[in-house]
Amino acid sequence: MALEKDNNTRASDRIAQELRKMIISLELQPGAKVSEADLVERLNCGRTPLREALQRLAEEYLVVSIPHHGVSIAELGLTDYVQLIEAVSHLEAISTRLASQRLVDDDIKKLKGIIDKSEKAHARDDILSIVEFDFIFHHTISAISRNRYIMHMTDRLHRLTSRFIYLAWRNGGEIHPSIEEHKEILQALTERNAEKAEKLTFEHTQNAKERIIQAL
After folding, report:
1. Partner of 213 at 20 to 30 A CA spacing, among 4, 172, 173, 194?
2. Which residues contact 131 (CB under 8 A, 6 or more apart)?
3. Any idea which of 55-64, 69-78, 171-180 has the lowest mean pLDDT?
4. Residue 89 belongs to what domain range?
């Protein structure tokens, strides 16, 4: 029985990841209603792991589940984005300050590797991968903060911004400045300069907000 549960968990992880990609890339449109039967067929999966995945995405505010009415993709509005950035900017600034005090050399290598992958994805114009590496960069910093509560909230909120980031970059928004700002944040972390790292991270989220609103 435990083995069956483990298999379902792994399957639900895979399904949740596929659905996130479909939502972020707007393959599943904001506000669109989707049925379990349709998703089972599209994802070639079972209903139990699908329901587990949908529950997880509902907790991440990516889908809305209404009893007896099915599931719909969460709406996408600029007002929502502005409120998200208000929260994300402060949370990520705090997590970066903590990370600067707690990171080790392997953490620096990991963050540099993520930036390198972002640049390679940028070179091949792979927007969806760049968006994912953007999330991974900030997730890694929040993980380095060694504060599970900040990491949990940062991950949930930053994941929500991914749809806005993808749409803005798909519409021709500038990607390169974001990658360069990641490099500056990494440099401040390497220097263990908590104040500078926190300041750069806050500015990065504010700059991103202006670039994304302009592109949208």
Report:
1. 194
2. 24, 162, 165, 166, 169
3. 69-78
4. 78-215
